[in-house]
């Protein structure tokens, strides 16, 4: 099922995904897959990664600009889709901003499609692991998403119906 012009806010690490002025290539490919999947499914993309050109333009944006923009996007979006990659088997790649956005999504009652290796790694917080008990959240294994990005359509539809 197509996304019918729904607005999908795609989140994930930016600052901690940049090493030696180069954005993590595996994460970049995954985010690009997400952006393309939403567009191909007739959805609208809200993405700091796209806006900031995967870190190239990040220094141009002030903390105030990023906070105001991302909060406005959270208010505007139909679904928040954070992508949380891991470092090894036990640790999430640090992404303070994405965790704040997860809190905003829950507080604003925005459905969340969490894309991360499943089960959530040992180093993931209790709040992240228990979030589905306090807000509308579906999880999709990161490797399954990479294998078939279009499956987000059905998951998002289910999130918006229930």
Catalogue the unreliable spans.
none
Gap from first CA to last CA: 16 Å
Task: Say how many strands there are.
Answer: 9
Helix content: 40-55%
CATH architecture label: 3-Layer(aba) Sandwich
Spatial ordering of strands, largest sheet: 4-1-5
- Tally of helical segments: 7
Q: What Rg do the Cα atoms give?
A: 15 Å
Top CATH class: Alpha Beta
Biggest pleated sheet: 3 strands, parallel
The fold-level CATH name is: Rossmann fold
* H/E element sequence: EEEHEHHEEEHEHEHH
* Shape, principal axes of CA atoms: globular
Mean pLDDT metric: 96
How many domains, as an integer? 1
Structural class given helices, strands, pairing?
A: alpha/beta
Beta-strand proportion: 15-25%
Organism: Erwinia amylovora NBRC 12687 = CFBP 1232
InterPro entries: Nucleoside_deoxyribTrfase
Protein name: Nucleoside 2-deoxyribosyltransferase
What is the structure about, briefly put?
41% of the residues lie in helices and 19% in strands.
Topology diagram in text:
Layout: E1 7-11, E2 18-19, E3 22-23, H1 25-40, E4 44-47, H2 48-51, H3 63-76, E5 79-82, E6 86-87, E7 91-92, H4 96-107, E8 112-116, H5 126-130, E9 137-141, H6 142-147, H7 152-161
Parallel strand pairs: 1-4, 1-5, 8-9
Antiparallel strand pairs: 2-3, 6-7
């Amino acid at each position: 099922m197509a996304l019918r012009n729904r607005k999908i806010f795609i989140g994930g690490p930016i600052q901690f995904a940049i090493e030696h002025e180069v954005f993590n290539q595996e994460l970049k490919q995954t985010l690009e897959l997400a952006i393309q999947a939403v567009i191909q499914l007739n959805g609208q993309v809200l993405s700091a990664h796209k806006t900031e050109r995967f870190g190239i333009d990040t220094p141009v944006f002030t903390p105030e600009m990023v906070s105001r923009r991302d909060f406005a996007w959270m208010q505007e979006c139909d679904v928040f889709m954070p992508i949380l990659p891991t470092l090894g088997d036990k640790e999430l790649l640090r992404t303070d901003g994405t965790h704040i956005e997860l809190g905003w999504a829950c507080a604003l009652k925005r459905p969340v499609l969490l894309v991360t290796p499943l089960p959530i790694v040992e180093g993931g917080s209790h709040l992240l692991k228990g979030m589905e008990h306090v807000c509308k959240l579906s999880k999709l294994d990161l490797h399954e998403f990479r294998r078939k990005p279009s499956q987000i359509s059905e998951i998002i539809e289910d999130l918006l119906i229930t």
